[in-house]
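Obj: model holo form, ligand = adenosine monophosphate.
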Amino acid sequence: MKAIVLFGSPGSGKGTQAKLLTQCLKVPHISTGDMLRERVRGAELGNAVAETMQSGALVSDELVNAMVEERLARPDTADGFILDGYPRTLAQADRLIRWLDERGVREVVVHLAVDYNVIIARLMGRRQCPRCGTLYNLASQPPHKAGFCDLDGARLVIREDDSEPVIRERLDSYERQTRPVWEHLRAVGRRVIELDASAGTPEVVFQEICQAIEVVQPAPPEK
Ligand code: AMP
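Output (holo structure tokens):
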């Protein structure tokens, strides 16, 4: 069972790393941000949720916890999963810990630590394909043809929550509500790994994650 929790501030590269990990480990990538955006687009969730997301604040724990539990109950998670953007509050962390412990699942929490100024620069330069979701960055990973997706040619967009005031609110929510989750997970003895993800390319960070996960894999039982 490969249960990986990717932890880090907005712009730390969780989404990119989750995509690389999901290809390598063949377990589903569960991004609460993507799930919420999909449900808002499909009108399953109302304006209040859309407005909260557009402001950069967090949506309610009840909604997100229920959504994640429903997703984790699907059969494709039998061999593991990669959580991206969850848990983001102490209440979510406690709920997840209970879920994992009840099933005897031992997760690895990987914290992608990135310098604040690097994060601001990354988020401001972020562009996304509205069709396939591929992320680009004008500074570090530009598309081959400016403004268009390499994979399907769709015109790239700036996500609504990547404007400067919203970026500040998202980073604020992270500091207030999510950073304490990291301290909490360490304090209660979960398996946590911290990586410096400021400078390396996505491929280098990915290699580091793979190595780190190997290191903490459980030892075989003694004969
Ligand atoms: P993300 O794509 O992960 O940056 O998430 C985009 C937005 O979705 C966030 O700014 C929040 O409004 C909302 N969101 C995503 N995950 C969570 C979560 N675990 N708890 C609360 N709100 C979330």
